[in-house]
Amino acid sequence: MKNAIVFGATSGIGKSVTRILIKEGYNVAITGRRLEKLEELKKEFPDQILVKQNDIQQIEDVEKVFNEIVLEFKTIDLVIQSSGVGFVNPKLDWDKEQQTILTNVLGVTKLYVLAYKLFKEQQFGHLVGISSIASIRGSRAAPDYFASKAYQKSYLEGLYIKTKSIKSKKVFITDIRPGFVDTPMALGDQLFWMVPLEKAAIQIYSAIKKKKRVAYISKRWQLVAWVLKIVPAWILKKMM
């Protein structure tokens, strides 16, 4: 059986993808702040789930939990980073900005580094980061969230380029860029092309199986990404 770690498995995408991994024969270590939610998921699959409570904002604890899981599983085939926070924050409230940075930048970077170093040592492994369509451009309503996703996108690309130095060529980096998925993380009021959570999870797992470098969820959001990349900032200033 293959071994996976899902950071941020208490709800949403992380929880749904965990269910798929279990059904596909993985042993899965799940992490998150809300222990009761993790325990609920373990009750569904008691023999295949390892629970580790973790707040990704606590950088030292991220490494401690990661190492404990590796010690238990011996080898790790797949790491999925699904932890994240985001706020509509037009007034730039600092507490919200700080939470976003601590989770989406510092905590996520720590996990990416741990996963990459482990996979280089193992000479195999697959790191999957859940970034966002928000990684393409900025936003007046949530500048911190959009910027943090742009950071993740760039960092994952850097790690992908860095895999050239790994002799085995069996280390893979995947950037998942969802549009609006029906979870609490969908920011804003006027949302379109909302993807049902289960459909999103199935498409994410399909991208993982195919070891895609980048995958938009759903695929139609690739068109939105293409438009966003070419639209001048002055037009976005009027629209967003």
Automatic annotation (TrEMBL):
GO MF terms here are: oxidoreductase activity
Coiled-coil annotated residue ranges, if any: none
Please, which domain of life does this record's source organism belong to? Bacteria
Which is a Gene Ontology cellular component entry for this protein?
A: membrane
Q: Which SUPFAM superfamilies match?
A: NAD(P)-binding Rossmann-fold domains
Enumerate the InterPro entries for this protein: NAD(P)-bd_dom_sf, SDR_fam
Q: Which UniProt keywords apply?
A: Oxidoreductase
Q: Which family does it belong to?
A: Belongs to the short-chain dehydrogenases/reductases (SDR) family.
Q: What is the protein name given in its UniProt record?
A: Oxidoreductase
What is the organism field in this record?
Polaribacter filamentus
